[in-house]
């Protein structure tokens, strides 16, 4: 099996410092899946990706994020679009408003 090289923890720290949680550097966005697996907890902490009750994970390996406040809707969608582009698929989706509900398996 071919081993995959990933960046070092110190290089990741430098890359995190060069961006923001809504605009991660291209160094972070252009990594392979081994990188995201290896640094999952670091990325979750630094990019506010911690799972909460406002997040629903579907059977399609997608996260649905409930956004109640219209004041942050555009910022949240920008962040989700940035990560979806980096992941190469639509893994993050949003639900809006006080009446948004999740359906089982949605």
Which of globular, elongated, flat, extended, rod-shaped describes the shape?
Answer: globular
Fraction of helical residues: 40-55%
> Could you name the ranges where pLDDT drops below 50 across 5 or more consecutive residues?
101-106
Rg (CA only): 15 Å
Strand order of the largest sheet: 1-2-3
Range of strand content: 5-15%
Main β sheet profile: 3 strands, mixed
Total beta strands = 3
Q: What's the total helix number?
A: 5
Ends apart, CA distance between termini: 36 Å
Q: How does the helix and strand content classify structurally?
A: alpha+beta
Mean pLDDT: 78
Q: What pattern of helices and strands is seen along the backbone?
A: HHHHEEHE
Features:
106 residues; alpha+beta
Explain the overall architecture:
- With 106 residues, this protein is of the alpha+beta class.
- It has 5 helices and 3 strands, in the order ααααββαβ.
- The chain has helices at 9-17, 26-29, 33-38, 40-46, 70-87, and strands at 55-57, 63-67, 92-96.
- It has a 3-stranded mixed β-sheet with strand order 1-2-3, with helices on one face.
- It starts with 8 loop residues before the first helix and ends in a 10-residue tail after the last strand.
């Amino acid at each position: 099996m071919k081993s995959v090289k990933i960046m070092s923890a110190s290089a990741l720290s430098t890359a995190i410092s060069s961006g923001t949680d809504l605009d991660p550097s291209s160094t972070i966005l252009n990594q392979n899946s081994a990188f995201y697996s290896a640094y999952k907890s670091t990325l979750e902490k630094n990019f506010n990706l911690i799972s909460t009750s406002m997040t629903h994970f579907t059977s399609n390996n997608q996260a649905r994020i409930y956004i109640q406040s219209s004041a942050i809707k555009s910022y949240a969608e920008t962040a989700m679009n940035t990560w979806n582009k980096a992941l190469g698929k639509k893994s993050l989706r949003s639900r809006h408003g006080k009446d948004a509900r999740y359906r089982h398996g949605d």
